[in-house]
Amino acid sequence: MNKRLEGRAPARPTIKAVAAAAGVSTAAVSQAVNGTGRISEATRRRVMDAASELGWSPSASATALRRARTRTIALVVRRPTDVLGSDPHFSELITGLEGELAPRGYGLLLHLVADMAQESALYERLVAEGRIDGAVLTDARADDPRPDLLRGLGLPAVLLGAPDAGSPVPRVGLGQQGAGIREAVGHLLELGHRRVAYVAGPAELLHTRLRLAAFEEALEEAGLSPVAVRHSDFTERAAVDVTEELLALPDRPTALVFPNDSMAVCGIGTAQRSGLRVPDDLSVVGYDNLSLGRWVHPRLTTVDQQVQRVGAAAARTLLAGCGEDVPPPVLDGRPRLVVRESTGPVPSPT
Amino acid sequence: MNKRLEGRAPARPTIKAVAAAAGVSTAAVSQAVNGTGRISEATRRRVMDAASELGWSPSASATALRRARTRTIALVVRRPTDVLGSDPHFSELITGLEGELAPRGYGLLLHLVADMAQESALYERLVAEGRIDGAVLTDARADDPRPDLLRGLGLPAVLLGAPDAGSPVPRVGLGQQGAGIREAVGHLLELGHRRVAYVAGPAELLHTRLRLAAFEEALEEAGLSPVAVRHSDFTERAAVDVTEELLALPDRPTALVFPNDSMAVCGIGTAQRSGLRVPDDLSVVGYDNLSLGRWVHPRLTTVDQQVQRVGAAAARTLLAGCGEDVPPPVLDGRPRLVVRESTGPVPSPT
Fold first, then answer.
1. Residue B336: beta bridge partners?
2. Longest CA pairwise span in chain A (Å)
3. Is B295 within 8 Å of A98 when comparing Cβ atoms?
4. Are B90 and A91 a contacting pair at CB < 8 A?
5. Is residue B350, in this structure, part of any structural domain at all?
6. Residue B272: what pLDDT?
């Protein structure tokens, strides 16, 4: 970075001059300006004073550095605002992204939009105004217009989802998206369950389709079909409603599979409130492997899809595209079932 | 907005010309460019094509509109990345902010920093580079350098916390920060509890001090003192460790008060795993009133500090400062106890 900063027009004050005046290295100047590294407040002030005295502006340097060096990555979420609050999935994703972005002084520009048209218009505006260096695309759809749009705009992007060599932008995620659900069904079948119900996410999402297909196939291979399949909007309120409905079915399921952990925890609470014991009377499986599931009672059996690691890998892919020196992204294969205490042998028929 | 957009140098194409060419209103052009409103994808494309044909650039207009009209608000979080993932408090805050920002086409620029020096340097850089229109300051400290810094930088800011007329920047939050904890203690005393332990947040945070003082005063007024006070880093792991430690005390507490809901839920799980019933053997109080607490079993007694509403009020205060036409922020007084099922009468001595 220092070399590039020094390569400006000679008429203007240089970072070297600022470093010399402040009695620090150019790296320290860079850190003071970028808010990275571990320099003291006193050093930072000395650098800023020297910069101010010499008329050296970090802004001008940053602009000179590269046309679009904003150190900002966009994360546009096409969801109602209340899901952001209730579904910890996004906090986990943001945590994974920030773990890579923060140490390099990058920020995450979060926008919530109502639909795909708004999302597309937003990328065009952010690119036109030079506000971002890249974008993380979430909630891949079967017919997703964004990869082509962003390639057209020349903006580095990654799409979260199963790797696909034919995609116009890199896809970052675990392979075999259905593998965790297949494992979950296998686990329930081994425990003797035959009446399993599936709570899915919104029907238009690609991962909803992949996971539901895996669920139905795995049951079909055992000569079974789901007791019930219900789509949901991922909210806790929906978890309560759907659990109450499923537990009132004449052919009551002995196991419920949820599309995220917060819904699974709410499903357990709803079952317990109706007098059922988990897992004695009802087995429950979540999805995401959030830390909460490790501590509730009973501990949650869930599918680990490594949300934080996927976020970190997406960030590294984008950072590499921005010319940053980052280790290659590491992702460990496929979603895996984590068996804890919320699943158990099928209750004997009463 | 249209009037301002039209007030550019006459030599350049106008938004009016773009609107006429696309056969839409100037408001629709503005919506197409900003990704706001409810226009169809077809209309949006028509507008973008007309803009492109006439050589009208939304970027230039946006710049002309006002020097620093970035439609971006900064949220800098001075916490380890893993707390962001495990504490839903930030998701709730972001949800509240986005509920006001998103409909107006504003984004939230999220940065994680390690300490106050990094946070200060970051504001200086973001202002110097013209990247933000305002900032939301969280985790107020007793001796907080940020209000003076941001006033000096000329950046609109709000500091989350109890209102304080003497503050250099507006403070947005509920008054009487200790009121919820006082109510919680009163509730536990009424239920007959005398051995109450308090799990606090990090000691350097202002709200940690205010709440702890309220807790100790409320007990003192009843002639009691806490069985134990422990500081924590807000994580679920800490909740498990501190709960195990407190339940092993010779003078075991009959009630635990936690600094957030996710810690309280983990505390309940830890107590249940050790064979204790909640609330029969142990009462537990949370803080935040997250939606999760409504659905777990037993439902969580907690203090509602209206995190989403505080976020919304902070966003409105900043948006008004950016010249947006927003309703005045509304906040309902003070934190209040929400009594549910995780608190009950003190167990009879064994």
1. B304
2. 88
3. no
4. yes
5. no
6. 95
Write out residues 73-132 of B within 8 Å (CB-CB) of A: 74, 81-82, 84-86, 88, 90-92, 94-96, 98-99, 101-102, 105, 107-114, 116-122, 124-125, 128-131
Q: Shortest CA distance to A170 belongs to which of A140, A190, A196?
A: A140
Q: Are residues A155 and A198 in the same domain?
A: no
Q: How far is A29 from chain B (nearest CA, A)?
A: 11
Give B9-31 pLDDT, tens digit per residue: 334 567 778 888 888 877 777 67
Phi, psi dihedral angles at A103 (to 5 degrees): -65, -20
Subunit contact A269:B295, Cβ cutoff 8 A:
yes
Is the domain of A115 the same as that of A201?
A: no
Considering the domain architecture, whether residues A42 and A93 belong to the same structural domain is answered as no
Which structural domain range is residue A285 located in?
179-305
Cβ pair B111:A113 closer than 8 A:
no
d(CA A123, CA A78): 13
Report the complex ipTM: 0.74
What is the per-residue pLDDT across B274-283, written as a single tens digit (0 to 9) for each?
Answer: 999 999 999 9
B-chain residue closest to A73, CA distance: B109
Residue A258 lies in a domain: yes
From residue B153, give the alpha-carbon distance in Å to each of A32, B169, B191, B279.
16, 12, 52, 51
Examine residue B283 and state whether it is found in any structural domain, yes or no: yes
Domain membership of residue A63 (yes or no) is no
B99 & B161 share domain: yes
Give percent of chain A with pLDDT exceeding 90: 53
Instruction: State residue B1's pLDDT score.
Output: 36
